[in-house]
Design brief:
This protein is mainly alpha-helical. The protein is built from 14 helices and 15 strands. The chain has a single domain, classed as Glycoside hydrolase 144 (GH144) (Glycosyltransferase, Alpha/alpha barrel). The longest helix is centred in the middle third of the chain and has 18 residues.
């Protein structure tokens, strides 16, 4: 099928699906044609989620997408947030004609039923699930945290599916959502969401940094977690919800790198400026103190690219088309969250061994389309960087590189392929943005947090 006709069918189907749904926060329709190379990478992202799944009906994790480190032939637990990207991948696959609606709907129902049967505490799942037992964590390290961010990402994908399919999927999604006690996961003093919870295996004398319920740390300053405030404010059960006081208690620190000041995330990692935007369209939204989160992430993207350009002589492999450093597999330390770009917060230090995560630049597509497209073209020309599901997780021309050939982190991770998948689709058709913006709980959350639509 010719691409222009395929795109027209997608956009027409989207308008028929979504037009009758009212929304307080409509998404501007800005269709963009994807190049054949962008289509190739998008399809690779979809195939990763669709093909790497547990197809054993007898398994306690039946239906779930298997997740990280595909290609390394090593044991990997299932990340809960991965399922949120999985659900949106299925929607995109249906819209683009890659799978049938019936097959996609069946897969999501199976997975939601599995998730309902997994152990939850106050409605939240553990961050990682053992694929063989359905229990908490790794086989050799079961002490994994209860995660509001991972559960929230799962929920965002489920809410998109609830809008797309309605029926049993919406029913199952809201059963899960209604059980999630967001107030319990919020510090009553600081109003910040806790960072994590360790409700089991607490020692007799609980460390000072963990409270009696096992709560640890806090999402205190701006990061990838803005979606948590929206979900908590829009919760179906009022007694489980939070309000403006939590969102506006978030600390914001300013920084700049050869450009305008913007609100920074301490680590400087690209994904922190992308995660919530993969699901919520902030282009025409402002909160009551007039913060423009879309422009903020655009400034972060421009700073990240400029940082790579300025350091190209110092760090081999960086440059105008090789940028957007972010959490990824490291050639020296395994998976690391210490990759990023300036500006960074006080007390943080970057790991600079030349490692670049392709998703970092690509997932800035809605903010810096030309620069992200040029990065995609460049990265597809790097020897060994493209595999079965498109671009691999990371590469480096410094550590463990051989001559002019880079070291390649030959694996696929859910956050990589999920962020690229959603950002490419939202740039092209705004599909996932539209679905979530028509959702009653997302609307409720945005309204409660005093977001307003601008022209």
């Amino acid at each position: 099928m010719k691409y222009w006709l395929f795109t027209a069918i997608i956009l027409l189907h989207g308008s028929l699906t979504l037009a009758e749904q009212s929304t307080l926060y409509p998404v501007q329709n800005t269709p963009q044609r994807l190049s054949p190379l962008m289509e190739r990478e998008l399809r690779g992202c979809f195939d990763f989620f669709w093909e790497e799944w547990n197809d054993d009906p007898k398994s306690p994790t039946y239906g779930m997408s298997n997740g990280d480190y595909v290609g390394l032939n090593k044991y990997s637990p299932i990340p809960i947030e991965h399922q949120g990207f999985y659900f949106t991948a299925i929607i995109i696959g249906i819209e683009r004609g890659w799978i049938s609606r019936e097959d996609g709907e069946k897969r999501i129902i199976i997975t939601l039923k599995t998730l309902k049967n997994l152990k939850r505490i106050k409605g939240f799942w553990y961050h990682f699930i053992d694929p063989d037992t359905g229990k908490r964590g790794w086989k050799d390290s079961p002490k994994i945290e209860l995660s509001n961010a991972s559960a929230g990402t799962l929920l965002l994908g489920a809410l998109a599916a609830a809008e797309y399919f309605d029926g049993e999927i919406k029913k199952l999604t809201y059963e899960l959502y209604a059980a999630m006690d967001w107030k319990w996961f919020t510090n009553p003093v600081t109003k910040h969401p806790y960072l994590a919870c360790y409700p089991e295996d607490l020692p007799a004398k609980v460390p000072s940094e963990i409270n009696k319920d096992g709560m640890f740390g806090g999402w205190s300053a701006y990061s990838e977690h803005i979606f948590l405030y929206i979900l908590a404010a829009g919760a179906p059960k009022e007694e489980f919800s939070t309000g403006q006081d939590s969102y506006y208690a978030m600390k914001t620190y300013m920084g700049s790198y050869k450009g305008e000041e913007f609100i920074i995330c301490g680590t400087g990692a690209a994904f922190t400026y992308q995660w919530t935007h993969a699901f919520i369209d902030f282009r025409n939204l402002r909160d009551k103190i007039d913060r423009d989160w879309f422009s903020n992430s655009r400034h972060a993207a421009l700073a990240a690219r400029q940082y790579a350009i300025d350091n190209a002589d110092r760090i081999k492999g960086l440059g105008p088309n090789s940028w957007g450093m972010s959490a990824c597999i490291s050639p020296s330390t395994g998976y690391s969250g210490k990759y990023g770009s300036f500006p960074i917060g006080a007390g943080y230090k970057l790991l600079e061994d030349g490692t670049v995560a392709p998703y970092g630049a690509l997932s800035f597509l809605p903010f810096t389309p030309q620069a992200s497209i040029e990065a995609l073209q460049h990265m597809y020309e790097i020897p060994g960087l493209v595999g079965k599901y498109g671009l691999y997780d990371s590469y480096s021309y410094v550590t463990k590189a051989k001559g002019n050939l880079p070291w390649i982190g030959k694996s696929y991770l859910g956050i990589d392929k999920g962020l690229v998948l959603l950002m490419f689709e939202n740039y092209s058709t705004q599909l996932i943005w539209k679905l979530l913006h028509q959702n009653k709980s997302i609307q409720k959350g945005l309204k409660r947090l005093a977001f307003r639509q601008i022209n």
